[in-house]
Design goal:
single chain, 260 residues
C-alpha cells in the first residue's frame, strides 16, 4: 500500500481542525474581549531509508528519509489588544495593556477574564453577565449618584447628599508570565495552568500592569479579512491533499491492471 494515502489523510484531518478553529474565530467576531486562536502543526516521524554519512567509511553526504504527514501540535491563543467600544457606562471597564479581571466562580475558584462588562446586582455588588462576583468583592452604596473609576483602578463615588467624591473600592487585576498557557473555560473566562504560571496580582497602572478605562469595553481581536484568507488557504490545502489521495489511487489502479 502506498504510504502517500495515509500521509495525505493526516493532511486532510489537520486542515479540518484548522477550519474548525477558524470557524470558531469568525463565530466570536462580536464577542467582547474574545482572543483569536491559531493552529500550530508538526510533521510526523520519518522513516530513515538510508542514514547520512557512515563513521566506518565515506558515506553519502545526505540521507534518505520519508515523512509520514502532519499532526496538530497546539492551538495558540493571541492575547493582543482587541478593538475599543465606547458604552458610556461607568461600570463597563477596559484594560489597556496587560492584565485580567478576577471573577469568583460558583465553586469558589477564581477565573480570569478580559471582559469588563460589569453590572450592579440587587444587593449592590459588582457582577459580570453571569452574575459572578468581581474579586475582590466590590459593593456600591445605595445612595451613589455618580461613579468614577480612575486609570489606576480607584473607584470613587459622589452621593445624593452632595460633597466631594469618596473612594469606595480599589480594583485589582492579575497577569501571567505566559497567558497563552491559560485554559479556556468558555464564557470569556480562563483558568491558570502549570504552563501559564500562577496569577501575579497588582493594581492597574503598576509596573507590568495595564490601566483601566471606564465607559469602554474591549472587543474581539479577530480580523475578518485575515480569517477569510486563512480559510481559503486551509480549503486549498485540503483540496491538494485530497488530490494526492486521488493520484495515489489512480497509480494503484494502474498497477492492478498490469498483465504479463
Amino acid at each position: 500500500m502506498m504510504r502517500s494515502l495515509s500521509t495525505a489523510a493526516t493532511g486532510m484531518k489537520a486542515q479540518q481542525l484548522n477550519v474548525d478553529t477558524i470557524a470558531n474565530n469568525l463565530a466570536n467576531v462580536n464577542t467582547p474581549s474574545f482572543k483569536r486562536t491559531r493552529v500550530r502543526f508538526q510533521d510526523l516521524m520519518y522513516q530513515n531509508l538510508r542514514p547520512a554519512g557512515d563513521p566506518a567509511r565515506l558515506g553519502p553526504p545526505t540521507g534518505m528519509s520519508i515523512g509520514h504527514g502532519t499532526r496538530l501540535a497546539a492551538t495558540e491563543r493571541n492575547f493582543a489588544q482587541g478593538t475599543t467600544e465606547q458604552t458610556n457606562n461607568p461600570l463597563h471597564l477596559l484594560i489597556e495593556g496587560d492584565g485580567f479581571f478576577q471573577i469568583r466562580r460558583t465553586d469558589g475558584t477564581i477565573a480570569y477574564t478580559r471582559d469588563g462588562s460589569f453590572f450592579r446586582s440587587s444587593e449592590g455588588a459588582l457582577v459580570n453577565t453571569d452574575g459572578l462576583y468581581l474579586e475582590p468583592q466590590t459593593f456600591l452604596p445605595e445612595d451613589v449618584m455618580q461613579l468614577l473609576v480612575s486609570a489606576d483602578g480607584v473607584m470613587s463615588a459622589t452621593f445624593v447628599d452632595g460633597g466631594l467624591p469618596e473612594e469606595i473600592a480599589q480594583i485589582e487585576v492579575a497577569r501571567f508570565l505566559n497567558p497563552a498557557g491559560l485554559e479556556s473555560l468558555g464564557r470569556n473566562t480562563f483558568a491558570p495552568t502549570m504552563a501559564s504560571g500562577e496569577a501575579i496580582l497588582g493594581t492597574p497602572g503598576a509596573e507590568g500592569f495595564g490601566t483601566v478605562l471606564s465607559g469602554f469595553l474591549e472587543g474581539s481581536n479577530v480580523e475578518v479579512v485575515e480569517e477569510m484568507v486563512a480559510l481559503i488557504t486551509a480549503q486549498r490545502a485540503y483540496e491538494i491533499n485530497s488530490k494526492s489521495i486521488r493520484t495515489a489511487d489512480e497509480m494503484l489502479a494502474q498497477a492492478t491492471q498490469l498483465v504479463r
